[in-house]
Amino acid sequence: VGQDATKAGLRAAVAKEPRWRAIHIACHGLVDVRRPSLSALALTPGPDDDGLLAARDVFVERMPADLAVLSACETGRGRVVRGEGLLGLTRAFMFAGAPRVIVSLWKVDDEATRALMEAFYRLWSPKDGSKGLPTSQALRRAQQAVERDPRWKHPYYWAAWVLWGLPN
Question: 101 with 67: CB under 8 angstroms?
């Protein structure tokens, strides 16, 4: 968060546990469709870096989590390469250890995204300790909750979010 949201800060936070249920990164996304390895998440610049966590950086990291949520614009975009599939941030986080990744396909609205993410986590990981919904179902129901709000009825506000990888 804030000044601690550097690449080094992320590495240190991830290293605190052998495996996380979720890694959630909320920031600005920068997509480079021609050079998908340069697509990045904009973190806080550190003393020795520009703050851009590029897909190529993630490929050499460990992101041991059951789910990575890249809550930023266009994090699900990339380039489809024959014989390889989609290259970009989604693939990088899966390669780094997350079998599920939630990403967006276009520029997203901050307030609608916050509402969607709050609804998702309430459904996926209830605070009362009860068993949450599978990831795919929690995401769909969170999208439906946002869609019911008159401010965000249009699919622009909720349909950008997709789950890649395993459904549960």
Answer: yes
